[in-house]
Amino acid sequence: MATYKSDNPDLRHKQVVSKMAADWNAMTDAEKQPYQDLSTKDKERFKKEKNEFDEYIESHGGKRSRNKNSAKKSSVVKSSAKLDANEPYDQSEAPKKPRAGFLHFVEAKIESYKKEN
C-alpha cells in the first residue's frame, strides 16, 4: 500500500484497492500460496468456532429467529440462563467469518505501510 499511495498520492481509496487487485491477479499461484494458507487456517478456525457456538446455543435452548432490528437478518435468540425467544441474539457474539486470501494480502500491505510510516 505504501508504494501505491506514495507513488500516486492523488489516487482515491477505490483506485488503490483496484491496483492491489491487479497486483493480486498478476501474482503466480506460488506467490499467493502464503495468503491462501492463511485463508485455509481462517476457514478451519471459523468451522471450529461455529460448531462450538451452535452447540452452546442449542445447549441453552436457543433457536433461529428474526432480529427485531432487521427483517432480513437471521439471528439466534439468547439470554443469560435460558435463551428467551423474545430476546434477539447479538450478531457481535457470533464467530467472525473467514477471510479470502486476497484480504490477507491487502492486510499485509497495509501493515507494511504502517511500519514504514
Explain what this protein looks like in three dimensions.
With 117 residues, the chain is mainly alpha-helical. It contains four helices and two strands; from the N terminus they run αααββα. A two-stranded antiparallel sheet has the order 1-2. A hairpin with a 2-residue loop joins strand 1 and strand 2 (70-76). The model is unreliable at 64-81 (pLDDT under 50).
Q: Number of helix segments?
A: 4
Strand content: 5-15%
Helix content: 55-70%
Mean pLDDT across the residues is 75
N-end to C-end Cα span: 11 Å
Q: Based on helices, strands and strand pairing, what is the structural class?
A: mainly alpha
Radius of gyration: 20 Å
**Overall 3D form:** elongated
**Strand runs, count:** 2
- Provide the low-confidence segments as ranges: 64-81
Order of helices and strands: HHHEEH
Q: For the report, how would you describe the main beta sheet? A: 2 strands, antiparallel
Strand sequence of the main sheet, in spatial order? Answer: 1-2
SSE layout:
Layout lengths: L1 H6 L5 H14 L2 H31 L4 E4 L2 E7 L24 H16 L1
Antiparallel strand pairs: 1-2
Helix pairs in contact: 3-4
Describe the structure concisely for a colleague.
By secondary structure, the protein is mainly α.
Defining traits:
two-stranded antiparallel sheet, mainly alpha, 117 residues, 57% helix
